[in-house]
Specification:
The structure holds two protein chains of two kinds. Chain A is an alpha/beta fold. Chain A folds into two domains: 132 residues, Periplasmic binding protein-like II (D-Maltodextrin-Binding Protein, domain 2, 3-Layer(aba) Sandwich), CATH 3.40.190; 174 residues, Periplasmic binding protein-like II (D-Maltodextrin-Binding Protein, domain 2, 3-Layer(aba) Sandwich). In chain A, 40% of the residues lie in helices and 19% in strands. Chain A is built from 13 helices and eleven strands. In chain A, the strands form two sheets. In chain A, strands 2-1-3-11-4-8-6-7 form an eight-stranded mixed sheet. Chain A has a three-stranded mixed sheet with strand order 5-9-10. By secondary structure, chain B is mainly alpha-helical. Chain B folds into two domains: 48 residues; 238 residues, MetI-like fold. Chain B has eleven helices and two strands. In chain B, a hairpin with a 4-residue loop joins strand 1 and strand 2. Classes of the chains: A alpha/beta, B mainly alpha. The interface between A and B is medium-sized, with 33 and 31 residues.
Chain lengths: 331, 300
């Protein structure tokens, strides 16, 4: 009897003796697949560390970081100066991977649609309403465009995908910037709202002659046709991991890493690309700082090698080196 | 006899049991109190979190229709409109169907058929709303487009999904109420030579009226608050269009869509304000139902 009791006591005490450490994070949904893969793999490297991540959305991540209810956050759009001002202490933006947004379309007879930034902006502004509009016809001289109205589809939920897309539209169209602007959810002049990538993709797939925007990874995994987009250098680029990394490499990187890489200047750059960031406190409580720093070092080396398999673009080498230096200040 | 028993029960147990009684009363009063407390705390929290919106826009928040998270301009009218119209459409479709089905089940169907059908109806009530939403996307939306709706998604599609969702409630409750109609009343009517239709119209339905109205308002409450299935098929466009084939938006749907990514305080506050308005609408609807049932009870 006594032996059983002591055995039970031992079993209860054992995990506590191993001193399991946990870190909690929350934020963006877009990088969730790669983050959960990283945290899982890192747990194998460091069995006494458990990192939990809740993909509640970028807005939620920023809010939780501000309230200090998590150890780190994650966001698809950089925090505004005003948002950072509200945080007690300094926040570092650590870029982790890159993603892209593609214009998905449903046209029966068009295999390779070409679009430009201004045309996309005018379609979403409601100024171009038909596929036979001269502006579209001019870009697609040899395509058989239907004489039909364009059914425009956008995200109904606030999302980093929307942020990246309207960030691009704001850069290529002054009218968009003035009339609609830039946020994770905007006041759409036209179009139907679909919830999530799957909602938009569902509407595009089901509605003939429609146009929507979705994440590159989602479009690839589900075999959805998407258009090439003309970049700043005038080249039509069909989104790919390489095009995204090229965009990141051609953009000038500021010290705080808060950079938008939409409409990037490079020849091979895909214009609707974006970084996604981890939001890390510069000063952490207890020994969480060094633990986070170790993880980030691992992420920059071993972690980056896992990105391509999941469809994310890895950081360009130059950015990777800059980040390695920047994380040294984490305490 | 009864009085004597009650007397014995009161006397015999002695003081210890009475303390137990008091404790019991205290505990169940606390249980009831928790319900009131939760409702009050909910209203208080919603009001507190949405103060910013009410300060900035006042009551005009409820009748303006711009929803612009970029410039922090918010008006809830298209969402109020969408919630009201989709729910009313659902009732228009589901009430005649549900009451008709209940009459069939109680008055016409053979017993084993009725039981089999009831099982199917209860099964329908247990289907999670996200499943109904998926069904909406894959079956109803293409069907609507095939039938000539411009996009397939829209207010009427949402109304149809909601109707499917509340149909089991209306049918089940109406059937239960119809089963309580006293047999002698109906038999008396038949004895006078009344047809089945006359019995249903003259005896069953009037007798069951307050129960049916209760069922309708319970379903309306459910339709007003339904989120997932509606957001999947309504089109999520904050615009007021009197054509029910056009897309719309509902209050619950906009909260579900935008809350996770609402980074600015004004946006968050506006979404909570919509939540408070939705709560207000449900309270008014339930109040109206109570009043109606109370009045009918008095007249009878």
């Amino acid at each position: 009897m006594n032996r059983t009791l002591s055995l039970i006591a031992l079993l209860i005490a054992a995990p506590a003796a191993a001193q399991m450490k946990t870190l909690n994070g929350a934020g963006a949904t877009f990088p969730y697949p790669i983050y959960s893969k990283w945290f899982d793999e890192y747990h194998k490297v460091k069995p006494d560390l458990q990192i939990n991540y809740q993909s509640i959305g970028s807005g939620g991540g920023i809010r939780q970081v501000t309230e200090r209810t998590v150890d780190f956050g994650a966001s698809d759009g950089p925090m505004t100066t005003q948002q950072q001002f509200k945080v007690d202490g300094k926040i570092l933006h650590i870029p982790t991977v890159l993603g892209a947004v593609v214009p998905a379309y449903n046209l029966k007879d068009v295999a390779d649609l070409k679009l430009s930034g201004p045309v996309l902006a005018d379609i979403y502004l409601g100024k171009i309403t038909r596929w036979t509009d001269p502006a579209i016809a001019q870009l697609n001289a040899d395509a058989k465009l239907p004489d039909a109205a364009i059914t425009v589809v956008h995200r109904s939920d606030g999302s980093g995908t929307t942020y990246c897309f309207v960030d691009y539209l704001s850069k290529v169209s002054a009218e968009w910037k003035k009339k609609v602007g830039l946020a994770t959810a905007v006041n759409w002049p036209v179009g139907l709202g679909g919830k999530g990538n799957e909602g938009v993709a569902g509407l595009v797939k089901g509605t003939p002659n429609s146009l929507g925007y979705i994440e590159l990874i989602y479009a690839k995994q589900n075999d959805i046709a998407y258009a090439s987009v003309q970049n700043k250098a005038g080249k039509f680029i069909k989104a790919s991991v390489d095009g995204v990394t090229a965009a990141a490499a051609s953009a000038k990187m500021p010290k705080d890493f808060k950079v938008s890489i939409t409409d990037a200047p490079g020849e091979a750059a895909y214009p609707i690309s974006t970084f996604t960031w981890l939001l890390i406190y510069e000063k952490n409580t207890g020994d969480k700082g060094p633990v986070l720093k170790d993880f980030l070092k691992w992420m920059l080396k071993d972690g980056q090698a896992m990105t391509a398999a999941l469809g994310y673009a890895p950081l360009p080498l130059s950015v990777n080196q800059m980040v390695s230096q920047a994380i040294e200040v984490i305490k | 006899m009864n009085a004597a028993v009650a007397d014995r029960v009161r006397k015999v147990p002695g003081s210890r049991e009475r303390a137990g009684d008091r404790l019991f009363r205290l505990i169940i009063t606390a249980f009831a109190g928790i319900i009131l407390f939760a409702a009050a705390a909910l209203a208080w929290q919603l009001t507190r979190e949405s103060l910013g919106t009410w300060k900035a826009f006042g009551a005009s928040f409820l009748w303006t229709s711009t929803w612009d998270p970029v410039n922090d301009v918010f008006g809830a009218l298209p969402f109020l409109y969408g919630t009201a119209v989709s729910s009313i459409l659902a009732l228009l479709i589901a009430v005649p169907l549900g009451v008709g089905a209940a009459v069939f089940l109680t008055e016409l169907a053979p017993k084993n058929v009725a039981e089999g059908l009831m099982f199917a109806i209860e099964l329908l009530a247990a289907v999670p709303s996200v499943i109904l939403g998926l069904m909406g996307i894959f079956i109803l939306v293409p069907a609507m487009r095939w039938a000539g709706a411009p996009y397939g998604v829209g207010m009427l599609t949402a109304g149809l999904i909601l109707a499917l969702m509340i149909l089991p409630y209306i049918t089940t409750i109406t059937r239960e109420v119809l089963l309580t109609v006293p047999r002698p009343l109906k038999e008396a009517m038949y004895a006078l030579g009344a047809t089945r239709w006359e019995v249903v119209r003259g005896v069953s339905l009037p007798f069951a009226r307050s129960g049916i109205i209760g069922a309708v308002f319970l379903s309306l409450g459910r339709a007003l608050g339904e989120t997932m299935a509606v957001t999947m098929v309504i089109g999520n466009t904050p615009r007021i269009d009197f054509n029910v084939l056009q897309p719309g938006y509902s209050m619950a749907a906009v909260i579900a869509n935008e809350l996770a990514e609402a980074a600015s305080d004004a946006h968050l506050s506006a979404l909570v304000a919509i939540g408070l308005a939705l709560m207000g609408v449900t309270v008014v609807v339930n109040g109206a139902a109570r009043l109606m049932i109370y009045r009918l009870g008095k007249r009878a």
